[in-house]
Design a protein that fits this description.
With 336 residues, the chain is α+β, with helices and mostly antiparallel strands. The chain has two domains: 230 residues, Rossmann fold; 89 residues, OB fold (Dihydrolipoamide Acetyltransferase, E2P) (Beta Barrel), CATH 2.40.50.140. The chain has ten helices and 18 strands. The strands form four sheets. It has a six-stranded mixed sheet with strand order 6-7-8-3-9-10, with helices on both faces. A hairpin with a 2-residue loop joins β1 and β2. It is globular. The chain starts with a strand and ends in a 10-residue tail after the last strand. Bound molecules: adenosine-5'-triphosphate. Adenosine-5'-triphosphate binds next to β2 and α1.
């Protein structure tokens, strides 16, 4: 099992600083997910760990060994990208076996490993097919299988599901979760901008913002105790509501954050009152958008199909005082 240590890691492309000093400890066998807005440096950080990009300064160590100048293959990593990059003229078996054949592995052992990986990913029936005879999800599983057979110490994923449609994303996400459970010796790092993937797959999530680490924690730690407005707004869907001015001052905060699922409505009384401007019925949930006079409408999540009509007057209150108070710097406000 491999622990990964990043110490003051920086990356510049010419004069453009992309990674601006990252310190991060990834535990052996951990599933770490990098999230953050587009362009914050997630893929670059992953590529620095993989060895596909050179580190400008700082150190990267796998266990006790500094690997800054090692090639990807010397680091013992395998990587799965958004584009599957399979060889179109080779069968699934040959695609999966290619790296091992190149390394002059024993034919029997190659066959055993390919079959084992194919079974794990439920693509055993397709080993004789060409990539063009597979669906997108199956192709991505071949790409994952190709990485598994190499028995990597560290497994890196760069948005592997983003080319798949919604149903396949869910299915392949489950495959990756199962994979992690069965490969608990392998340290995994996964880049995504998808909330659900991050929350469901990660042991811990690292939120990046503009080339620095904003917060690292388990999915629930980030959800329950965001250490900045940025993380509070980034983790959770629909997004946390933010209120300022008199709405926040009542609570001794510069900004008050309340998640849509932590608000309840009443026809009679409540903390705030406003007019319903829109009700989005999704079947399982309804999102109510209520104008309480603040800058943005409050979003309230209700179970099932809400019966309220636009124009209706509603009262809204936080459930069990489930609120987040932030100071002017966007950090949690000290308790008054
Ligand atoms: P996304 O979610 O959109 O994929 P990201 O967080 O993965 O974004 P990166 O791909 O790491 O972001 O890019 C971070 C920044 O570095 C971007 O502004 C990008 O344009 C820049 N960048 C990435 N690679 C290079 C390169 N080879 N040369 C110059 N700039 C680069």
């Amino acid at each position: 099992m491999t622990a990964i240590h990043l110490d003051a890691v920086r990356k510049s492309f010419g004069t453009f600083d992309v990674i601006k000093g990252v310190d991060l400890e990834i535990d052996p066998g951990e599933f770490m997910v990098f999230v953050g807005p587009s362009g914050c440096g997630k893929s670059t950080l992953l590529r620095l760990i993989s060895g596909l990009e050179d580190i400008t300064s700082g150190t990267l160590a796998f266990d006790d060994k500094i690997v800054n100048s090692l090639t990807p293959s010397q680091r013992g990593i395998a990587m799965v990208f958004q584009s599957y990059a399979l060889y179109p003229h080779m069968t699934v078996f040959d695609n999966m076996a290619f790296g091992l054949k190149l390394a002059k592995g024993d034919a029997g052992e190659i066959k055993r490993r390919v079959h084992k990986a194919a079974e794990m990913l439920q693509i055993g029936a397709y080993l004789d097919r060409l990539p063009k005879q597979l669906s997108g999800g199956q192709r991505q599983r071949v790409a994952i299988g190709r990485a598994i057979v190499r028995d990597p110490k560290v497994f890196l994923f760069d948005e592997p599901l983003s080319n798949l449609d919604a149903a396949l994303r869910v299915q392949t996400r489950l495959e990756i979760a199962k994979l992690h459970a069965s490969m608990h010796e392998t340290t995994m790092i996964y880049v995504t901008h998808d909330q659900v993937e991050a929350m469901t797959l990660a042991d811990r999530i690292c939120v990046l913002r503009d080339g620095i680490v904003e917060q690292v924690g388990t999915p629930l730690e980030l959800y329950e105790n965001p250490q900045s407005i940025f993380v509070a707004g980034f983790i959770g869907s629909p997004k946390m509501n933010f209120l300022t001015d008199k709405y926040a001052q009542t609570y001794g905060a510069h900004t008050l954050g309340v998640r849509p699922e932590h608000l309840q409505i009443s026809q009679k009384d409540g903390t705030w009152d406003g007019k319903l401007i829109l009700a989005e019925n999704l079947g399982s949930d309804t999102y109510l958008y209520i104008d309480i006079g603040a800058k943005d409408p409050l979003v309230v999540r209700q179970d099932g199909t809400a019966r309220q009509q636009p124009g209706e007057r509603l009262f809204i209150s936080p459930i069990n005082n489930n609120i987040h108070r932030f100071d002017q710097s966007g950090r949690p406000a000290a308790h008054s």
